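Structural prep section.
Before we set up the soaks we want a predicted structure of the protein with pyridoxal-5'-phosphate in place, mainly to decide which crystallisation condition to try first. Input record follows.
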Amino acid sequence: MIYNFDQIINRRNTNSIKWKVNSHELPLTIADMDFSTAPEIIQALNDKIATGVFGYEDIPSSYFTAVEAWYLKQHQVNLPSEWQLFVTGVIPALSSIVRRLTHPGEQILVLSPVYDIFYHSIENNGRITQECPLIYDRQKRKYQINFEDLAAKLAEPQTTMMILCNPHNPIGQVWSQEILTQILELCKKYQVILVSDEIHGDLVLEKPDYTPILSLDSDLNTQTIALVSTSKTFNLAALHAATAIIPNSYLRYEVNRGFNNDEIAEPNFAAVTATIAAYEKGAPWLASLKSYLCQNKQLVQQVLDEKIPKIRLVPGNATYLLWLDCTDIPESSTEIVTRIAHHTGLILADGSVYRGNGSHFIRMSIACPRVELKDALSRLVMASKFL
Ligand SMILES: Cc1ncc(COP(=O)(O)O)c(C=O)c1O
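Run finished without errors. Recording the tokens verbatim:
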């Protein structure tokens, strides 16, 4: 089947959070896509809606087997059904895990700059963020983990959990097997629970592929929790479904109890139906999406190289979120995004919210039809005169 990613869908005045902007403004900000989801998913939802009965529902075993089959086929990793818990989103699960498996006042480590909501899950629950800033090589535009710093911080007795973003939003990098193994070894050595947010794992646009943390040595994964979801991959964020994968039965019991006590853990029919359809039937659509996103990315690269050399793309291969290096511009990212919005109506994400060295970077989503991206890029070229 040919999928049409060029189709423009007007999301203004649709309750979309991203599109709650003025009529002249164009937002390439938060991580959802301006594409319709896979037709196979829409069909499954339509079929379910046609039954007309929306009473309380349980999670069918086909949900867990669909997750299992997807990960085996797409990522060659075995995530048995019995390790899985249905959760109503990666962040609700993360916050619940933080509350259930750590204590107020303890430190939770993150590699910054990282997805800003991690900080909320930690700090809104009275835990302390322990940042291990990634080292940035401006020449190569590449981030690396400072393992000396990581080891020292994980060794602190107050550090009881690490939250990893694998692949890493916002820098768009996948972590190699070697690096993940080093992280696991350190977490094991210092008895730190590792939570790996793998929500972007299916959105790796070019090789090398992402490594699911649970594909590594099981002896190192006794205190690991992986969080996966179709919400980014298939643009289903508003349906609220994700899966926590927890090999350790004690941790799984605790998280399950915590989630059921603290959260609305009841699945809604749309979340379950769409997730099953995505995992069972969505692979061809996803392959097409990734090739469209690759072309979008090449277009951005070309325009930056030719017309805006002071903004440089950080060359990651994962996610549809581009991380743009503005270190050649003296102003902070807050000032830069404000000026771009003021002069052209293009709205981009201010890198400072991700902490670390984010205050010299901006983040741009390319998950939109090419016409929209071209409009954004011509606005960016215009705005560059004011930077
Ligand atoms: C790394 C990461 N984790 C989690 C989320 C949100 O997940 P959910 O909507 O399932 O809570 C996002 C959304 O952008 C994300 O980038």
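Observations: The chain has two domains: 26-39+283-384, 54-280.
Flagged for discussion at group meeting.
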